[in-house]
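Hi there, hope your week has been kind to you so far. Thanks so much in advance, here it is:
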Amino acid sequence: MTDLSNLKAPEGAKRSRKRVGRGPGSTHGTTAGRGTKGQNARSGGRRHPRFEGGQTPLYKALPKFGFSNEKFRKEYSIVNLEDLERCFEAGDVVDETSLIDRGLIKRNHDGIKILGRGELTKGLTVKAHKFSKSAKAAIENVEGNAEVI
């Protein structure tokens, strides 16, 4: 029999969050569970997890390894021969604007590079910043022209 002396929350019920600072009767009033005074009793008083009490932190004390050329790296927009075969007709001139118009590249990053994946059967004039050896050979094998910009 259930009466007021043995009430329980139903199975699977979620517990409500602790409401602090709501008076002494709640047992979480006045200091709201933060103790008395000090840095951590204040709002915004917690330090970040890497703080080591003013000692030089480990991430600064350890030597740094390696070298990154990330800042100076060139990023090329990549186009494969199979894309050229699919989107262009024989005799077309393939350059930056025509590639953007046909949706093969979104924008020209630091240049365009033509790679040799797929087959090319049409003679095209391709103007790009870089060509892989296989792509250049494939373009020239079908009487096309690979021009470096």
User: Anything to note?
Assistant: Residues 76-148 form a domain with the Ribosomal Protein L15; Chain: K; domain 2 fold (CATH 3.100.10.10). The mean pLDDT is 88.
